[in-house]
Amino acid sequence: MSILSDKGSHSHNPGHQMHSGADFKMPANVNELIVFTMSDSSGETAEAVARAAVVQFSPGHASIYRLPQVRNAQQIPAMVKEISHGRGIIAYTLVLPEYRETLEAEARKYHIPTIDLLGPLMARIATLTDSAPLSQPGRLHLLDESYFKRIEAVDFAMRFDDGKNPDGMLAADVVLIGVSRTSKTPNCMYLAHHFGLKAANVPLVYGVEPPLALFKVPPKRIFGLQIDPFLLQEIRTNRSQVLGMPGDNDYADPERINQEVRYAKKLFRELKCHVINVSTKAIEETSSEIYLRMRE
């Protein structure tokens, strides 16, 4: 039995997690690099950094496998030995010095490249602040005030999603508006979970007046999500097929979509809100732009 798990290799589907009790299978492509992310906590930080790097390469060049929850230095030699049979690199966020030292020593035995994602920055901060790091794994995920703020914001986003309880918009940090399928809900959830912002959203429907409460919200808190009509038609066509809707429905009709988009632009101008074109943006990009604008 292997200490690693999660069979297979997925270059652009990172985040595979390894635990004891299952066989680990190297990728069929021997030239594919495996980025093993090792952590003495959840491993989310290391995986996020590795993912940001891996997606800059074409599929088939690199995969990511997570090695979280390293609990003692004695675990590390066996883990390193097992992953030495493939073409890999170890990117790690190990807080405890003895873990880092053990890993580096074992990796040298098998000529496995390593990269310390956390140590150099911690060392520089220690030097500049003339203080020693606490060296406590998992501090990033402590249940502090910001954690509860994010939980409260997620609850808010769910309660005031899709125009529900419109009066609640006045209590929102940010209100997203746009026609259907402009990623209003996922952006609200992202803003809540990552930034602790209470986000509400209102769908704009052609021929239907938006709630009066929307016009009471300060323009700087409102963000209009705009999208290319051709892309929107493609998205809605696929959505219609998934839902089993008839092919001639208004939802994916090009003329109807153009009317909706024009109507949304008109409302954006009336509300004097900031407009973001989400046609080529990921949720993370849109939410980050909103967050930065809010900070201004």
Distance N terminus to C terminus? 55 Å
> Approximately how much helix is present in the residues?
25-40%
CATH fold name of the largest domain: Rossmann fold
Main β-sheet, spatial strand arrangement: 1-3-2-4-5
Structural class: alpha/beta
Low-confidence stretches: 5-15, 18-24
The global form is elongated
C-alpha Rg, in Å? 24 Å
Count of alpha/pi helices = 9
Mean pLDDT across every amino acid position = 87
Number of strands: 9
Strand content: 5-15%
**Total domain units:** 2
Assigned CATH class of the largest domain: Alpha Beta
CATH architecture of the largest domain: 3-Layer(aba) Sandwich
Report the sheet with the most strands, covering strand number, pairing sense and barrel closure.
Answer: 5 strands, parallel
Write the H/E string, N to C.
Answer: EEHEHEHEHHEHEEHHEH
Question: What does this entry look like structurally?
Answer:
By secondary structure, the protein is an alpha/beta fold. The protein folds into two domains: 16-140, Rossmann fold; 145-295, 3-Layer(aba) Sandwich (Rossmann fold). Helices cover 40% and strands 15% of the residues. It has nine helices and nine strands. The protein has helices at 44-54, 75-83, 97-109, 119-129, 145-159, 184-195, 229-243, 254-271, 283-295, and strands spanning 16-17, 33-39, 62-67, 88-93, 114-116, 174-178, 199-203, 222-226, 274-277. The strands form two sheets. Strands 1-3-2-4-5 form a five-stranded parallel sheet, sandwiched between helices. A four-stranded parallel sheet has the order 7-6-8-9, with helices on both faces. Helix 1 links the parallel strand 2 and strand 3. Helix 5 (145-159) packs antiparallel against helix 6 and helix 6 packs across helix 9 (283-295). It is elongated. The termini are far apart.
